[in-house]
Design goal:
192 residues, two-stranded antiparallel ribbon
Length: 192
């Protein structure tokens, strides 16, 4: 995996989507939008997930270790995540809980409980890159306007003391979220 992506990538998509959207975009548009969060040199080989009739399905089977998913590119507030395939059980469980009506912080805490109990596997270095659409998605140019990018590396049970990272968000510098929990993760928002 690309060292830059490995070193910084992964965000809390895990806590962002609250319900399964129904994509109004064509399969090609969903694939293009979903790949926005992948490093450019890895987009063409990533597995792309999308929504068909409200259900997540594989739109394109990839040949590398990335999985990308856009919730609904026709929605001006859509978000895109590309993550290492080792995170798929964690991500799939989040989608399942959302479909059951368990959203937001409750969904996050439920998954943390399941990781701690051993019911849900969490890789030691789950990685994700997350992009939000900001002011909207331009399908013709496959770009977002005023969007934001966040990178995350999940490090279960990491603490500020163990990592040397602050728990206070800071643009351009890494910080630790959900410290000491099964879902602890390093976040980085690049400077604008």
């Amino acid at each position: 995996m690309n060292r830059t992506f490995t070193a910084i990538a992964v965000l809390a998509l895990a806590t962002s989507w609250s319900q399964a959207p129904v994509a109004a975009q064509s399969t090609d548009e969903q694939i293009a939008a979903a790949s926005l969060a992948a490093p450019e040199d890895r987009r063409a080989e990533a597995t792309i997930l999308g929504y068909v009739d409200g259900a997540v399905t594989t739109l394109r089977k990839g040949t590398n270790d990335l999985i990308c998913l856009a919730d609904d590119p026709s929605n001006t507030n859509f978000s895109v995540a590309c993550y290492h395939e080792s995170l798929e059980p964690f991500m799939a469980r989040g989608r399942q809980l959302s479909a059951e009506g368990i959203t937001g912080n409750d969904r996050k805490l439920k998954r943390f409980e399941e990781i701690e109990s051993g019911k849900l596997a969490m890789p030691r270095d789950g990685r994700m890159l997350y992009v939000t659409s900001g002011d909207g998605y331009d399908a013709a140019n496959n770009t977002v306007t005023n969007g934001s990018t966040r990178w995350v590396i999940y490090m279960p049970f990491a603490t500020p003391e163990a990592t040397g990272l602050t728990a206070s968000p800071s643009r351009g510098a890494p910080w630790l979220m959900d410290s000491g929990t099964a879902g602890a993760h390093v976040m980085l928002m690049p400077p604008q």
